[in-house]
Amino acid sequence: MVVLLKLNVPKDIKVLVVEDQPILAMELELMLTDSDCEVVGLAMDQASALMLARRCEPDLALVDVNLLDGLTGPQVAHDLVERHGVAVVFMTANPEQIPEGFSGALGVVCKPFDETTLREVVDFARRFRTSGDITRPPRRLKLAPWLSTPPGDIAPH
């Protein structure tokens, strides 16, 4: 008889999901957990996202553009990057609402997306955080313009 034990291995990336559609947020949480990520929280608006960022110190945030409190995703992204050093990726059905320059985010993935895309985005964010590497971005990730000409003082988050 063989018994398989799942070891309690620490997750190497903490992810905050900022999404106002509860079903999609829970689906993202399940996919991220299956990808060995630690989901530190689900937020539906700007205030909740920033409170969770202060409390949980995420490495990566997946942020929708339109949240319960309106078109606040870009401000959430900016605050997460500037105040907390979080790598941000927008995940939206409305890419035309992404601000020019992408508010410090690494890029944008259009909804709908699949689990493979999500895994590739997480792997890309891991590489960026550890080494600043922006080569080999996922096929469905549109990189933010600032990444092609980053300022000299922008290091891995």
Describe the structure.
There is one protein chain. The chain is of the alpha/beta class. 34% of the residues lie in helices and 18% in strands. The protein has helices at residues 22-34, 46-56, 73-84, 115-131; strands spanning 14-18, 38-43, 60-63, 87-92, 107-110, 141-143. The protein has a six-stranded mixed sheet, sandwiched between helices. Helix 1 links the parallel strand 1 and strand 2. It is globular.
Concise overview:
With 157 residues, the chain is α/β, with parallel strands linked by helices. The protein has helices at 22-34, 46-56, 73-84, 115-131; strands at 14-18, 38-43, 60-63, 87-92, 107-110, 141-143.
List the keywords.
alpha/beta; 157 residues; globular
What's the topology here?
Blueprint: E1 14-18, H1 22-34, E2 38-43, H2 46-56, E3 60-63, H3 73-84, E4 87-92, E5 107-110, H4 115-131, E6 141-143
Parallel strand pairs: 1-2, 1-3, 3-4, 4-5
Antiparallel strand pairs: 5-6
What overall geometry do the principal axes of the alpha carbons give?
Answer: globular
Structural class: alpha/beta
The biggest sheet, with number of strands, parallel, antiparallel or mixed sense and barrel status, is: 6 strands, mixed
Widest β-sheet, arrangement of strands: 2-1-3-4-5-6
Oligomerization status of the protein chains: single chain
Strand content: 15-25%
Number of H/I helices: 4
Give the N-to-C terminal Cα separation: 46 Å
The topology string of helices and strands comes to: EHEHEHEEHE
